């Protein structure tokens, strides 16, 4: 097994809560500070900076948009936010109480997002026009969302134990999970035309093909509470174990490898492939952790 180097980089105080992370078009890491109402930026090897937004908004998931800006969900104030790479912020209001959470760029030049409290999938154009699509179930708590290579958007339904797909025409298909009460959360597109997702309550990693075939991979620690998943430069899925203070990866043969984070109780949430080729994860206790083969560091 390849040995890993895991380095923690403090980016804020313990109360601010780094939550989600992505690589921006400017070659920097961008991350949400969910408890501080700020968006952070870190160029690997540099010093962190952050931009203030509404302190009460609860910025959650962040992604690169088709317009060269970063887009994020403001869960507590029910808005979609946009921030340019030089820090200019715009926010677009949504219906009250909808609870936007996941967001991803779609194949149609718009951003698509989940409304956890309203059982809807939303679409917002880069000039702020919003369309909403109701789901055919109630109490579903749609969570993360990702663009597949089939021109659809794929999302997790945390409370109805399914993975869904919505086409750009608004047509929705649901795929129930084999494991009951698995509570899927994070989802991401793989390099081989499949989607990968995590089952936070079942302690499993899931794989779904675009025709709906699902495979589940149990983790060594079923109580680890996997939270987010991302793909590295080789196409390998990496995930965070929020409840066990670890990150892990899944080999093509289904073998799972997990790695302890240096600081106990660091609460890893989001994970992303960084601009330096390493995996980076957001630790809610105030840091970003860089995960790479030890050889990368000489």
UniProtKB/TrEMBL annotation:
SUPFAM superfamilies named in the record: Calcium-dependent phosphotriesterase (SSF63829), NHL repeat (SSF101898)
EC number(s) given by UniProt: 4.2.99.-
Cofactor or coenzyme needed: Mg(2+)
Function: Inactivates the type B streptogramin antibiotics by linearizing the lactone ring at the ester linkage, generating a free phenylglycine carboxylate and converting the threonyl moiety into 2-amino-butenoic acid.
UniProt keyword annotation of Lyase present: yes
Gene name of the encoded protein: vgb
UniProt enzyme class: lyase
Listed name of the protein: Virginiamycin B lyase
Positions of substrate binding: 227
